[in-house]
Amino acid sequence: MSRGRALGAALGAGLAWGLFESQWVELRRLELALPGLPRALDGLTVMHLSDFHLGTPSLARRAVAKALAWAAARGPDLVVITGDLVSGPGGEHQLVDGLRRLRPRHGIYAVLGNHDVAVTRDPFSGGREVADLAAAGAVLLRDEAVTIDAGEARVQLVGVEPLAYAAGRSRPWELADPAADLRILLCHFPEVVDGLAPGAFQLVLSGHLHGGQICLPWPGGKVRLAHVSPRYAEGIFRVRGTTLAVSRGLGTTFVPFRLCARPEAVELVLRSARG
In 3D, which of 156, 174, 154, 155 has the Cα closest to residue 164? Predict the structure, then answer.
């Protein structure tokens, strides 16, 4: 085989794998210890979903469908979605239809991402903001807070609006209720944690970076071709007393591929911890 044919075959195999990986969703259950979490909330389950990008020319909608089916079967206490919900025609219908199947005990809460408000350079993303999440039984938080009763404890959720955040106008810490037993901040952008005072929120949930989406394996880690050196790319971080969970999300942008950055849905099981 000539060098050109070999290169073409390798490229074709890589593209085929990228399409496969874009729908090879990882469904994870993760126990997460939160210092100061009251015993009444020990075992609370939070299904964290992010970055659907529904409506774009991609096979990632299959990952979203699998994640939503899994979430429905798990029956979590809360479902939270951290932005980039709809990016193209037909996406809102797919979103509403999928969310209607969920029946979490304490509801579905979501924030918007930059693609939802057309702050993106992706030519395939039209910035189609969801018109009415209430049709799916969900609550959209736009620099707003809501408090729910979870048995003997109170859980507050605060959501950040992306345009206000980009303009420096969003001040979620001013919405935090110190009387709540658990305060959760939903923000598409993980860097929001750097502007929080210690103790303002025990848990911050974010997405946005897709874990890099296209990554190359490298000794000691991986090289991300998008968002080359983010501070919080994916996973769990402890930042000045706050726990940050960053999802790789479920969809794709710019290209319909993923490499070494599988889509994911994570069920967080909150546990009490000392210190």
Answer: 174
Q: Kind of pairing, strands 221-224 and 153-159?
A: unpaired
Quote the distance between the C-alpha of residue 174 and its chain's center.
23
Low-confidence ranges of the chain (pLDDT < 50): 275
Q: What is the pLDDT of residues 37-63, one digit of tens each?
A: 999 999 999 999 999 999 888 888 999
Tell me the HSE value of 157 on the side-chain side, using a 13 A CA sphere. Answer: 24
Res 120: pLDDT: 59
Query: Is 210 strand, coil or helix?
Result: helix
**Cβ contact 242:5 at 8 Å:** no
Distance CA 22, CA 8 (A): 21
The domains located in the chain, with CATH, are 3-273 (3.60.21.10)
Q: Which of 99, 131, 115, 267 is nearest to 189 (CA)?
A: 115
The per-residue pLDDT for 173 is 96
What is the distance between the alpha carbons of residues 137 and 96, in angstroms, rounded to a whole number? 9
| Structure confidence at residue 42 (pLDDT) | 97
| Residue 126 to residue 114: CA distance in whole angstroms | 11
The CA–CA distances, whole Å, from 197 to 87, 201, 231, 241 equal 33, 8, 18, 9
What are the Cα distances from residue 110, in Å, to 46, 98, 186, 188, 213? 13, 14, 8, 10, 22
